[in-house]
């Protein structure tokens, strides 16, 4: 039976070990935004220096490119982009210390395996409701790669940001379970 | 008939057809600016009503109702706070339908890119375009260029369509060249395969634009134009309406649901546009419209 859990970021592997696919998770604390260009940059950065502009250990990635500040909020709107486009880099980033990633849509078998191997989770959130999700973001600052525009590396501070566990540390996969159940 | 055919355009801009009213580049640019600003913060009203209807039919305590409630709440926040309803404020797709009795003066789209740049800056929208798909993926930083087409239609009116198209839903779309023998069953399989494989990336509930016919390049345009049709309005023919209804039922039987978190609806409409084609061909295009459906159609003349 799916449960609702509130977690404070950054996470430890222990924090996510008991999460199960389908659980609702409310996140509070810092996440780092990275999309397509950011992932390419991150892999290059890891190869060159062995680190990223933020502490990887226990960090959560959010696959998102926000709109600028608006309506008195640090971001006008922000929501998940398609996670599968980051599949090429995710196993390596999980191995380097990332514990969770937030996006939308199915992941590759390699990413599901990486969740099992490293004890990391893939969280999904609803796409197309970015004005609402922006209300769960209390701060935003650029920490690197400013030349990438909306794809710059940002640290966002979340407050009860709503997500679901899409792939848990045992490799259970919410999207595929839903698909299979309907067939 | 499509006026990106240079012969057609030349005939109407230079040859003796009396203009029924003024159609100026400034008018088009101004309308594009207004449409972008409005669309970015507004869930299309017909689509919103379809979500409201779906919400009324959902079990109140379930995940489906929760997602639909959030889509509706998001639309309210967008309208009240004038913030974008989706962070992907899209590429700008513009179609100007011009009545054949009108003259098209010079480059009717000459002010569009400037209007887009101003609208995206003034509206604090996201700049989501790169200079070249393959060789220079630097952000253009003003969301230009817009992707424009001119279409000749019967009559003496001009209508501007502006669609803000998100990357996720366009990526979840496809063109397939079927053999004619594949028939309706083949078209059905293309739609259902596309939804099964890609709907989770396209932010359901969807409007599914389905183009069948024309040529390899034009069939995608049919599917895109189909997204402009009012959700819930009837198809051009009874045959098409029946096929749309059948496809919608089958799509929703997949159980993918809002946000692909299970349940129904996966789509609120399938809109089909068909066209003539070559004896050897059965072109099919699926263009996914996401749950942040944003477009406007404005009569200019």
TrEMBL record, chain A:
> Which InterPro entries does the record match to this protein?
Fe-S_hydro-lyase_TtdB-typ_cat, Fe-S_hydroAse_TtdB_cat_sf
The UniProt record lists the keyword Lyase: yes
- All copies of the Fe-S hydro-lyase tartrate dehydratase beta-type catalytic domain together span 3-177
User: Span of the secretion signal?
Assistant: none
Q: Which UniProt keywords apply?
A: Lyase
A Pfam family of this chain: Fumerase_C
The answer to whether UniProt assigns keyword tRNA processing to this entry is no
- Record-linked SUPFAM superfamilies: FumA C-terminal domain-like
Give one GO molecular function term.
hydro-lyase activity
Family of this protein: Belongs to the class-I fumarase family.
Q: What is this protein called?
A: Hydrolyase, tartrate beta subunit/fumarate domain-containing protein, Fe-S type
From TrEMBL, chain B:
Q: Which residues does UniProt assign to the signal peptide?
A: none
Keyword RNA-binding on this protein? no
Which keywords label this protein?
4Fe-4S, Iron, Iron-sulfur, Lyase, Metal-binding
Matching entries from Pfam families are given as:
Fumerase
Question: InterPro entries in the record, alphabetically?
Answer: Class-I_Fumarase/Tartrate_DH (IPR051208), Fe-S_hydro-lyase_TtdA-typ_cat (IPR004646)
The question of whether Repressor is a record keyword is answered with no
Q: Where is the Fe-S hydro-lyase tartrate dehydratase alpha-type catalytic domain?
A: 31-298
Q: Which domain of life is it from?
A: Bacteria
Q: Name one GO molecular function term.
A: lyase activity
Residues folding into a coiled coil are none
Q: Which family does it belong to?
A: Belongs to the class-I fumarase family.
Q: Which NCBIfam families match?
A: PRK06246.1, ttdA_fumA_fumB
Record's protein name: Hydrolyase, tartrate alpha subunit/fumarate domain-containing protein, Fe-S type
Q: Which organism is it from?
A: Adlercreutzia caecimuris B7
Lineage here is: Bacteria, Bacillati, Actinomycetota, Coriobacteriia, Eggerthellales
């Amino acid at each position: 039976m799916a449960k609702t859990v509130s977690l404070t970021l950054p996470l430890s592997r222990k924090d996510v070990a008991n999460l199960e696919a389908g659980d609702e998770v409310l996140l509070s604390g810092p996440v780092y935004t990275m999309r397509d260009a950011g992932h390419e940059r991150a892999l290059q950065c890891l190869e060159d220096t062995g680190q990223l502009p933020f502490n990887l250990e226990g960090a959560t990635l959010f696959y998102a490119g926000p709109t600028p500040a608006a309506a008195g909020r640090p971001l006008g709107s922000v929501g998940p982009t398609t996670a599968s486009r980051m599949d090429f880099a995710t196993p390596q980033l999980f191995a380097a210390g990332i514990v969770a990633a937030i996006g939308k849509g199915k992941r590759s078998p390699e990413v599901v395996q990486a969740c099992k191997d490293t004890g990391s989770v893939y969280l999904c959130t609803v796409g197309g409701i970015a004005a609402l999700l922006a209300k769960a973001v209390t701060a935003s600052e650029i920490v690197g790669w400013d030349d990438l525009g909306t794809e710059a590396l940002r640290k966002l501070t979340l407050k009860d940001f709503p997500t679901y566990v899409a792939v848990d540390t045992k490799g259970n996969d919410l999207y595929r379970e839903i698909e299979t159940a309907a067939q | 008939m499509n006026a990106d055919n240079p012969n057609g355009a030349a005939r109407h801009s230079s040859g003796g057809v009396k203009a029924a009213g003024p159609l100026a580049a400034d008018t088009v640019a101004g309308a594009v600016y207004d449409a972008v600003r409005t669309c970015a913060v507004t869930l299309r009203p017909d689509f919103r009503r379809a979500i409201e209807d779906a919400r009324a039919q959902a079990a109140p305590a379930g995940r489906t109702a929760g997602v639909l409630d959030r889509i509706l709440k998001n639309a309210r926040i967008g309208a009240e706070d004038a913030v974008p309803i989706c962070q992907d404020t899209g590429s700008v797709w513009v179609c100007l339908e011009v009545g054949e009795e009108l003259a098209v003066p010079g480059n009717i789209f000459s002010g569009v890119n400037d209007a887009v740049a101003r609208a995206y800056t003034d509206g604090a929208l996201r700049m989501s375009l790169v200079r070249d798909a393959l060789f220079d993926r630097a952000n253009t930083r003003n969301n230009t260029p817009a992707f424009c087409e001119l279409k000749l239609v019967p009559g003496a009116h001009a209508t501007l369509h502006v669609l803000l198209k998100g990357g996720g839903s366009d990526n979840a779309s496809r063109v397939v060249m079927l053999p004619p023998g594949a028939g309706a069953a083949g078209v059905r399989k293309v739609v259902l395969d596309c939804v099964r494989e890609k709907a989770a990336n396209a932010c359901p509930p969807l409007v599914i634009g389905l183009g069948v016919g024309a040529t390899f390049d034009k069939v995608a345009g049919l599917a895109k134009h189909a997204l402009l049709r009012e959700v819930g309005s009837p198809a051009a023919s009874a045959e098409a309406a029946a096929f749309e209804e059948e496809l919608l039922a089958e799509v929703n039987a997949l159980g993918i649901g809002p946000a692909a978190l299970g349940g129904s609806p996966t789509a609120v409409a399938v809109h089909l546009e068909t066209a003539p084609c070559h004896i050897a061909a059965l072109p099919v295009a699926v263009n996914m419209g996401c749950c942040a459906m944003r477009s406007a159609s404005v009569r200019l003349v």
